């Protein structure tokens, strides 16, 4: 019987966060710090013809104005001469909002004021920021192209008795985490320390070592708390290298913080997508062909792909499938991963098309999905390590009351409001990455646990504390878990929903290794009650090492360590995916049922009820897990109804780079949300039997909402977001 795992546990870092003890990147107190403010380009493409910094340099408190003419070199020789790998390295401008100067002053206000006094003259070149205009120039994404088509999808489509085909569009969308991106950099001799907002301290360390041409062991990156990131801090952004370069040149610490507007061009975004989906089925609804062609934008200087069509291959049993992805260069900054990258975009198109097919067949949308349920992975033919999606459908439909749905659009009402019910499926990979953790167990029963992972909000501090306490047999308050520092054992980036499976497995492994060490100590005594037993037969609990099958047989750990002259025992463990995983397909699944109410006169949509059922392996902390899934639903509502980054293609500029005009859900937009878990026992995915849930929670929501809106109104909106003018 688990002591902590599977039980609702409040955040161990909660008090630190609400009392202000938790320090975020810009909050570290460093003596004699100077403040940097970034100047960004006002054109989308061209060259800097002239820079005048004289007035800015004369302004009060200004220490230096860095431009491409006087900035320290970043990157390998020649890097950035023609491309944009590092900031302030050439006169080239590749996107509107690109950093073109850094003003450093004694105070933030002085730096910001002086930044307005920097004068730049440009030689503009023709730019193109409209994805639709460059679709003909799109190139196949090499990674996606490795997955070959199944059967002959286009021939099977032509032969299918029932066919649907449609195009779906999603605009650029932006991560808008509460904490702005920031770094503080300081040098001690040739050693650099950087406090940075990042999802991977080791990645930033390597980036800075390369950029500044210093040995990697001379760089320390620290990031103990992150106020939301959602993918915007997975790749190293340009500001840490800029901050470190300025700190080296000025020989004093420098702090740089993005403004909210700078965040729109400073850390990537969800790319704009155009998707063409064609489905062919027999009259019983069994899919004969799936063609899912996706296009999205990248930048002119960097290739990026979010694998939009990746999961289309694994969702439904269908003998003929083609799911190509093409990427087109635009004169915008490079996109990046954003919560449920690729999957939520791809599944919006696929699950909307499935709803359209259900109507073409005169079939219930849930019955259509069950008719095409994949018992094994359609792509590889391998069995699933676990798959409880059928149970998700059953529980969700029952809870929601799906059987009472009248299928005809506009047939359900609440007074004058049109009522719509829609559903969708969701899928995400159940991944594990190599990760290491160190456990130091002390004679008094307390423990320090460390791994250089991140906590961008899902509750990593808490779940790692729970795992360590579970396997060390201690109380939660006896475990101190530390993260976010390159002095700790290496961990992967916090992304992809793999942190608990990866770092959690390492913490479990290191804790079990401590028990193994203690057992070896006990077995030095031939008369020990644990003589001759194997390590997997014992457990640590409340200061004793005891036999699992017979709690009376055990030894006191403190006495054991004292006899051996030990104050503490330390173990570092690296956890890796098991070889057995290769024999299976491992995915997390879910089903979403959504109710909307639409005002027929105003076109306003309210999502009044959501039931989301997820199969994500074992749930370690239900309190945090439900919070994660509710957050995913909220974001899905934002994506479906509100979120869009407006680009004025005449200027290549993102126009609504603030929280006043970039709309996200507020409390008044959110009504009843219920999240339910169907637990799966799956030790193939990892020893803890956990699958990631952070991404999965939003994957099916935009499609389910769009399907519900169609049911309510009879209007099929294929271009997100679904705003009132599209329904009037």
TrEMBL record:
Gene3D superfamilies: Aldehyde oxidase/xanthine dehydrogenase, a/b hammerhead, Aldehyde oxidase/xanthine dehydrogenase, molybdopterin binding domain. It holds the Pfam family MoCoBD_2. Transmembrane segments: none annotated. Residues 19-126 form the Aldehyde oxidase/xanthine dehydrogenase a/b hammerhead domain. It comes from the Bacteria. GO terms for molecular function: iron ion binding; oxidoreductase activity. PANTHER family: DEHYDROGENASE, XANTHINE DEHYDROGENASE. This is Aldehyde oxidase. It comes from Pseudacidovorax intermedius. The lineage of its organism: Bacteria, Pseudomonadati, Pseudomonadota, Betaproteobacteria, Burkholderiales.
């Amino acid at each position: 019987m688990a002591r902590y795992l599977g039980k609702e546990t409040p955040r161990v870092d909660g008090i630190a966060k609400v009392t202000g003890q938790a320090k975020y990147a810009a909050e570290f107190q460093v003596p004699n710090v100077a403040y940097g403010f970034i100047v960004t380009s006002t054109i989308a493409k061209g060259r800097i013809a002239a820079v005048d910094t004289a007035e800015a340099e004369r302004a009060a408190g200004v220490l230096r104005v860095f431009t491409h003419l006087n900035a320290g070199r970043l990157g390998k020789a020649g890097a950035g001469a023609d491309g944009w790998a590092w900031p302030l390295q050439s006169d080239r401008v590749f996107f509107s909002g690109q950093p073109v100067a850094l003003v450093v002053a004694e105070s933030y206000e002085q730096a910001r004021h002086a930044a307005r006094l920097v004068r730049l003259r440009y030689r503009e070149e023709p730019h193109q920021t409209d994805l639709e205009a460059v679709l003909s120039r799109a190139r196949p994404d090499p990674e996606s192209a490795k997955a070959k088509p199944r059967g002959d999808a286009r021939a099977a489509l032509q032969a299918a008795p029932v066919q649907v085909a449609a195009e779906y569009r999603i605009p650029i969308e932006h991560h808008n985490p509460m904490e702005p991106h920031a770094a503080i950099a300081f040098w001690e001799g040739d050693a650099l320390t950087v406090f940075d907002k990042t999802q991977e301290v080791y990645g930033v360390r390597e980036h800075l070592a390369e950029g500044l041409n210093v040995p990697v062991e001379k760089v320390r990156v620290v990031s103990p708390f992150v106020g939301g990131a959602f993918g915007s801090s997975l790749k190293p952004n340009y500001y840490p290298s800029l901050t470190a370069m300025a700190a080296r040149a000025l020989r004093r610490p420098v702090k740089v913080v993005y403004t909210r507007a700078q965040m729109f061009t400073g850390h990537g975004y969800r790319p704009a997508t155009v998707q063409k989906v064609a489905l062919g089925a027999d009259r019983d609804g069994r899919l004969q062909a799936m063609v899912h062609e996706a296009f999205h934008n990248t930048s002119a200087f960097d290739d990026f792909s979010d694998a939009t069509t990746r999961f289309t291959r694994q969702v439904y049993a269908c003998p003929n499938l083609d799911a190509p992805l093409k990427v087109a260069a635009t004169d915008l900054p490079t996109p990046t991963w954003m919560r449920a990258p690729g999957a939520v975009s791809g599944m919006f198109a696929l699950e909307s098309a499935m709803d359209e097919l259900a109507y073409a067949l005169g079939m219930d949308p849930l019955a259509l999905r069950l008719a095409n349920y994949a018992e094994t992975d359609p792509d590889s033919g391998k069995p699933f390590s676990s798959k409880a999606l059928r149970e998700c459908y059953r529980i969700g439909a029952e809870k929601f009351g799906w059987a009472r749905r009248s299928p005809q659009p506009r047939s359900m009402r609440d007074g004058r409001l049109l009522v719509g019910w829609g559903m969708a499926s969701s899928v995400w990979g159940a991944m594990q990455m190599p990760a290491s953790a160190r456990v130091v167990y002390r004679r008094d029963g307390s423990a320090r646990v460390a791994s250089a992972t991140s906590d961008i909000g899902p509750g990593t501090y808490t779940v790692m504390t729970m795992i360590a306490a579970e396997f060390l047999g201690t109380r939660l308050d006896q475990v101190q878990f530390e993260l976010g520092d390159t002095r700790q054992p290496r961990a992967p980036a916090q992304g992809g929903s793999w942190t608990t499976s990866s770092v959690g497995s390492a913490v479990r492994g290191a804790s079990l290794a401590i028990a193994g060490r203690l057992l070896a100590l006990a077995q030095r005594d031939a008369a020990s009650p644990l003589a001759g037993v194997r390590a997997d037969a014992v457990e640590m609990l409340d200061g004793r090492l005891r036999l699992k099958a017979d709690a009376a047989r055990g030894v006191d750990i403190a006495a054991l360590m004292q006899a051996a002259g030990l104050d503490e025992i330390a173990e570092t463990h690296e956890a890796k995916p098991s070889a057995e995983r290769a024999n299976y397909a491992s995915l997390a699944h879910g089903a979403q049922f959504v109710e909307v109410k639409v005002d027929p006169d105003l076109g306003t949509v309210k999502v009044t009820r959501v039931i989301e059922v997820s199969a994500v392996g074992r749930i370690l902390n239900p309190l945090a897990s439900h919070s994660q899934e509710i957050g995913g639903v909220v974001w899905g509502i934002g994506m479906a109804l509100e979120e869009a980054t407006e680009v004025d293609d005449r200027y290549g500029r993102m126009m609504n780079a603030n929280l006043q005009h970039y709309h996200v859900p507020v409390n008044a937009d959110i009504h009843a949300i219920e999240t339910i878990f169907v637990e799966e026992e799956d030790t193939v995915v990892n020893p803890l039997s956990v699958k990631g849930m952070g991404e999965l929670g939003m994957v099916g929501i935009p499609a389910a909402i769009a399907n519900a809106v169609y049911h309510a109104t009879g209007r099929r909106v294929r271009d997100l977001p679904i705003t009132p003018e599209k329904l009037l």
